[in-house]
From TrEMBL:
Residues 111-347 form the NAD-dependent epimerase/dehydratase domain. This is UDP-glucuronate 4-epimerase. Keywords: Isomerase, Membrane, NAD, Transmembrane, Transmembrane helix. It is found in: Golgi apparatus, Golgi stack membrane. The chain crosses the membrane at residues 39-56, 107-124. InterPro entries: Epimerase_deHydtase (IPR001509), NAD(P)-bd_dom_sf (IPR036291). GO terms for cellular component: Golgi cisterna membrane.
Length: 460
């Protein structure tokens, strides 16, 4: 717009200004006086636009999991947690102590399992309880995937006498209270924000859970008296762009391919610091593509099963020039075996009152099946188990942080933990499909909601 006042002709020579001579500062003030109304209007408009974007952003990013047409989609940038009652009180403390009670003497252990309502957490907790160990679970019950599945897992644990505390690992007061109530001998830290592709939608959740959450847990553990030994879930994703196969613990992990991998790599470095400074005994476990009953719905084998039964097309990725995508699929029972062996062989922490008294154990192990299987073969096995032909759609792998293959070298875990995976993919998928059909019960091969679901939300 012109700098002239409204109503002043723009054609030169037809109007002679009658304005008196003004000093420079007077002209400056007059100019601002004329612009203020316009500035106010544009500022108000900009503020309104920003407010609208803020209000709609959590629901406006309907982004798929990275598998086009897959059944697992993410429509929120912010994960919701349950509206559980505030922790604490005599009855709550009684339940914590009862759940932590060791029934296996004299060699039983008492374990705090974080992410207890998650896939691996549920299986590890139940396995520990079956042999008489004390187990207390902790889970924030967010809605990264269907909440009812985690609530159903929680019910399984409750039936076994395991109390799952509803709370977040970033709640330092809650962690301090738990360590004050129970002299945990071990922590099995499985709580994490999982999934490679979701990091492109909600990166903050990975930093909050996998980095800040780990630090929060280690802070509580190093201040506890006695200090527990820590076993925690890293990931095969830390190998990133490494091309040496099979992946070995001695290989460099300096080139992560995803934010998820980067947070797990950061976790391994953080673990080293707390071991070095505070004498915490820490064991990191690099899981390789865990699958099985009660699994995660965001995993390919899980939503492939759902979509095959629903008659929907499934998307299979291939690499450059038709390269095969393969994974070292590891059955849940084998992972549990490795987790428990890690707990049993973990040495005591050497700190006291937050001060290190001597060198402490620091280990990292691969837990895989050491038999990579192409994803197309996974689909073929599912077709045979479900007795339904899949509608396949093959597309190029997008640049979302996934890698072409994973392959674990497990010689160190065999030597140090006695780890011996013994479940092949066909056997493991048969057990998964049996559970899936019983849990979701799709009549006439049509996917329906699971009968008898309970409400709520859950964590990973």
């Amino acid at each position: 717009m012109s700098h002239m006042d409204v109503g002043v002709p723009s054609s030169p020579g037809k109007f002679k200004s009658e304005k008196p001579h003004l000093h420079h500062h007077q002209r400056f003030l007059l100019r601002w006086h004329n612009y203020l109304p316009k500035l106010f209007v544009w500022s108000f408009f900009a503020a309104a636009v920003l407010l609208a974007l803020f209000l709609i952003s959590p629901n406006s990013s309907s982004t798929s999991s990275g598998f086009p047409h897959s059944s697992f989609t993410t429509e929120r940038r912010f994960l919701r947690t349950s509206s559980a009652p505030t922790w604490g009180g005599p009855e709550w403390e009684k339940r914590v102590r009862s759940s932590a009670r060791i029934r296996r003497r004299p060699f039983g252990i008492s374990v705090l399992v974080t992410g207890a309502a998650g896939f691996v957490g549920t299986h590890v907790s139940n396995a520990l309880r079956r042999r008489g160990d004390g187990v207390v679970g902790l889970d924030n019950f967010n809605d990264y995937y269907e909440p009812s599945l985690k609530r159903a897992r929680q019910a399984l644990l409750s039936h076994s006498g395991i109390f799952v505390v509803e709370g977040d690992i970033n709640d330092g007061a809650l962690l301090a209270k738990l360590f004050d109530l129970v002299a945990f001998t071990h922590v099995c830290h499985l709580a994490a924000q999982a999934g490679v592709r979701y990091a492109m939608v909600n990166p903050g959740s990975y930093v909050d859970s996998n980095v800040a959450g780990l630090v929060s847990l280690l802070e509580a553990a190093r201040s506890a008296n006695p200090q527990p030994a820590i076993v925690w879930a890293s990931s095969s994703s830390v190998y990133g762009l490494n091309t040496q196969v099979p992946f070995s613990e001695v290989h460099l992990t300096d080139h992560p391919a995803s934010l998820y991998a980067a947070t797990k790599k950061a976790g391994e470095e953080i673990a080293h610091v707390y071991n070095h400074i505070y004498g915490l005994s820490i064991t990191g476990l690099r899981f390789f593509t865990v699958y099985g009953p009660w699994g995660r719905p965001d995993m390919a084998y899980f939503f492939f099963t759902k979509d095959i039964l629903s008659g929907k097309p499934i998307t299979i990725f291939e690499g450059p020039e038709g390269a095969t995508v393969a994974r070292d699929f590891t059955y849940i029972d084998d992972i549990v075996q490795g987790c428990i062996a890690s707990l049993d062989t973990a040495q005591k922490s050497t700190g006291s009152g937050g001060s290190k008294k001597g060198p402490a154990q620091l280990r990292v192990f691969n837990l895989g099946n050491t038999s990579p299987v192409p994803v197309v073969e996974l689909v073929s096995i599912l077709e045979r188990q479900l007795k339904v032909k899949a509608k396949r759609k093959v597309v190029k792998m997008p640049g979302n942080g996934d890698v072409l293959f994973t392959h674990a070298n497990i010689s160190l875990a065999k030597k140090e933990l006695g780890y011996h995976p013994n479940t092949d993919l066909q056997t493991g998928l048969k057990r998964f499909v049996k559970w899936y059909l019983a849990y979701y019960a799709p009549p006439s091969r049509t996917y329906l909601s699971k009968k008898g679901r309970s409400g709520g939300s859950s964590s990973s």
